[in-house]
Amino acid sequence: MIKRIDHPRWRDRNKIQTEPVVELRGVSFAYDDRTVLTDIQLEIYPHDFYGIIGPNGSGKSTLLKLMLGLVTPDAGEVLLWGKPLTENTNRARVGYVPQKATAFNASFPATVAEVVATGRIGRRGLFARPNPQDREIVADCLERVGMADFAHRHIGQLSGGQQQRVFIAQALAGEPELLLLDEPTVGVDSEQQSLFYDLMTHLNHDLGLTIVMVSHDIGVVTERVNKLACVNGRLFYHGEVSLFKDRQTEILSRLYGQVVEVVYHHH
Ligand SMILES: Nc1ncnc2c1ncn2[C@@H]1O[C@H](COP(=O)(O)OP(=O)(O)OP(=O)(O)O)[C@@H](O)[C@H]1O
């Protein structure tokens, strides 16, 4: 699975990448008549590890859904790799781990390997039988997330943190170049959380995967991502984390409407 991602254009990290992977141009969106996002303008570039933070109900998940084409903007445009989403034939290049993916019924009748194999559907079609290459990719993705030993266990019998790794493997099985994750560390203990971020850093640095992640935990996120969007109906900040940190108190108090103390976890 790495071969396709590990293309020379991904390897040369010093080369200036001019085309954003994701671009939102003046995007507004309402559920029925309730406006959730207004005039969102942002670009996400190859190799970005991009965090999205904001209060509850501020439109973070909706922002990801716009990038995925699960909802369509009322105004403005969403582009992936320079093409409007409506014309995009490359959705298979995007991996998605939705919110609460880990709230799994313990009796769900599927093994870890079967769940990860469903991540191949975008590549080989719904009814095609898995071939040896599919099986190799599934095994490789489980290995990558440290879950190879659990391949034949039932998904419902795993802990939240283990299930989370399986769903990341499922997304990776589609060989994405862009990985979108919605609150992936909710309900995961701090040790698993740290391992999760190590895995994301590995995928981002070593495989050149572009990662966009919604999170509540400002302290951890700002230690790990390189770019950040602060959203609450509109964008309050969008850009380098280093520049965010210089103005963090002011940005966060505008974003949350109160003074916010950021807790940093040191491991
Ligand atoms: N399918 C839907 N239909 C109607 N309203 C919705 C729908 N999905 C979300 N909303 C509303 O839109 C607003 C933004 O929701 P969204 O899930 O994008 O926020 P969020 O920042 O991800 O929230 P949280 O941090 O609580 O997960 C919320 O007020 C929510 O209640």
The stretches of 5 or more residues where confidence is low (pLDDT under 50) are: 1-15
Number of alpha- plus pi-helical segments: 11
Instruction: Give the rounded overall mean pLDDT.
Output: 85
Helix content: 25-40%
Bound molecules: adenosine-5'-triphosphate
Strand portion: 15-25%
Distance between the termini: 31 Å
Radius of gyration computed on alpha carbons: 18 Å
- Describe the sheet with the most strands: 6 strands, mixed
Content-based structural category: alpha/beta
Task: Give structural notes.
With 267 residues, the chain is of the alpha/beta class. It contains eleven helices and ten strands. The protein has helices at residues 2-5, 8-11, 60-68, 112-117, 121-124, 132-144, 160-173, 190-206, 218-224, 241-246, 248-256; strands at 22-31, 34-44, 49-53, 75-80, 83-84, 94-97, 178-182, 210-214, 227-232, 234-240. The longest helix has 17 residues, at 190-206.
